[in-house]
């Protein structure tokens, strides 16, 4: 099992749970369930960040993929109404099943692209695009089309360091959380003999 990966100069180092004998042949396999979950979360973040940037001009200034949810930090306040509007638009884009495109444009093409980035870049730059939603620099893994995300659920947007921290989940994570919340609501409803809301 690979437990960490990092770069040392030009080398990519894989830290394994157990030592390997020097010179031995090793075959690797991706944990597809984990990888696909990360692809759903990451591509969903692109859609949400792209929609927020296009609608309000806000910038994504932080991103963390936690065990259950993803948090994204934006540099401005996001209202509950804006949160609902972004979530509806994001899920509409999922239903449209738009392709996700990755490219390495040359310097001239890169200069002409209206990509979302925090800094000027040069050299080999990977651009990831969800047509009509987002174009940004990214070296991560993504689904092939928006339909593979399945669902985007924005759970909260709270004030954080002068901006907003949003909590969200996509795909299988979002479905599991929503099912758990529904079950919890049903149990509370039955315990207190009140209708579910």
Task: Give the N-terminus to C-terminus distance in angstroms.
Answer: 45 Å
Strand content: 25-35%
Order of helices and strands: EEHEEHEHEEEEH
How many β-strands, per DSSP?
A: 9
Q: Give the uncertain stretches in residue-range form.
A: none
Put simply, the count of helices is 4
Characterize the overall form.
Answer: globular
* Cα-based radius of gyration, to the nearest Å: 20 Å
Level of helix content?
A: 25-40%
Note the main sheet.
4 strands, antiparallel
Strand order of the largest sheet: 3-4-9-8
Class based on secondary structure composition and strand pairing: alpha+beta
Let me know the average pLDDT: 92
What brief labels describe this structure?
single chain, 197 residues, alpha+beta, 4-stranded antiparallel β-sheet, 3-stranded antiparallel β-sheet, 35% helix, 26% strand, globular
């Amino acid at each position: 099992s690979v437990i960490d990966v990092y770069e040392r100069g030009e080398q990519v180092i894989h830290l394994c749970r157990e030592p390997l004998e020097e010179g031995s042949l090793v075959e690797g396999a991706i944990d597809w369930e984990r990888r696909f979950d990360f692809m759903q979360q990451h591509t969903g973040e692109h859609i949400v960040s792209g929609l927020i940037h296009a609608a309000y001009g806000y910038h994504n200034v932080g991103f963390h993929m936690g065990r259950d949810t993803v948090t994204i930090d934006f540099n401005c306040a996001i209202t509950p109404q804006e949160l609902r509007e972004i979530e509806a638009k994001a899920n509409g884009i999922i239903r449209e099943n738009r392709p996700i495109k990755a490219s390495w444009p040359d310097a001239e093409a890169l200069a002409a692209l209206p990509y979302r980035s925090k800094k000027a870049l040069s050299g080999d730059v990977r651009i990831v695009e969800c047509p009509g939603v987002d174009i940004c620099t990214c070296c991560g893994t993504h689904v092939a089309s928006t339909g593979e995300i399945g669902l985007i659920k924005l759970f909260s947007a709270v004030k954080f360091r002068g901006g907003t921290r949003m909590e969200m989940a996509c795909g299988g994570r979002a479905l599991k959380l929503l099912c758990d919340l529904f079950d919890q609501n049903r149990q509370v409803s039955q315990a207190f003999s009140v209708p579910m809301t």
